[in-house]
Design brief:
Length: 213
């Protein structure tokens, strides 16, 4: 909502802060402005669709698709280092990055950006994307415990099948089962997030022996 107001020209939506200016300087140092390259080098060395404008309140950064993973990882590291809120508009993801903040749950996958504090709707959306082009989704708790869903060949099972796994703190507490039911995979993620252990009784889990190295 704030971005929409800011985009409509409303002033004072975002407060100025020295950390924003410091972030901008670090970002431009890591990925120089397009204007610093000649015509021969810009396609090879430039990452920006448009060079971000200097600001003490908000920095809007848009990069070329071919460098998106590299730039995205660098941006996330810099905003965390500077304690800034980062919003990823393509997937509507907010990373608070407040001092001392640790997301109680974080959702990751093969293809999409990490999502701190996903709600049930986000978990269901992510499972709708798990398949041949996005082989897994992992929901990790702040203490390191996690559940994960892998699909098809990525997880060593037949296409149309989901491999469900969970780990409780150590490699010797890692378990696995398989199901063709996507709804069961969604429920695993959703129940784990709210602390409901019904998923443990719903499936027949077997231990997985992982190499600690």
């Amino acid at each position: 909502a704030k971005l929409e107001r800011w985009g409509d020209g409303e002033t004072g939506v975002f407060a100025a802060h020295e950390a924003v200016g410091s972030f901008y300087a670090a970002l431009i140092d890591r990925f120089p402005p397009l204007e610093t390259f000649n015509d021969d080098d810009i396609d090879r060395l430039g990452v920006w669709s448009v060079t971000p404008e200097r600001s003490e309140a908000i920095v809007v950064a848009s990069c070329v698709w071919s460098r998106a993973d590299e730039v995205g990882a660098a941006v996330m590291a810099l905003v965390a280092a500077h304690g800034l809120v980062c919003y990823e508009p393509g997937y509507h993801i907010v990373n608070p990055n407040a001092l001392g903040y640790l997301a109680p749950f974080t959702l990751t996958s093969e293809r999409f950006p990490a999502v701190p504090e996903p709600d049930d709707r986000r978990l269901e959306w992510m499972m709708s994307k798990v398949g041949r082009d996005n082989g897994y989704a992992i929901l990790k708790r702040a203490d390191g415990w996690f559940v994960q869903v892998g699909y098809g060949m990525f997880a060593g099972v037949a296409n149309g099948t989901y491999a469900l796994e969970y780990q409780e703190g150590s490699l010797d507490r890692h378990f696995r089962c398989e199901t063709p039911d996507r709804t069961a995979a969604v429920r695993l993620l959703q129940e784990f997030r709210v602390g409901d252990d019904a998923w443990k009784q719903r499936h027949l889990w077997r231990p997985v022996h992982l190499d600690s190295e």
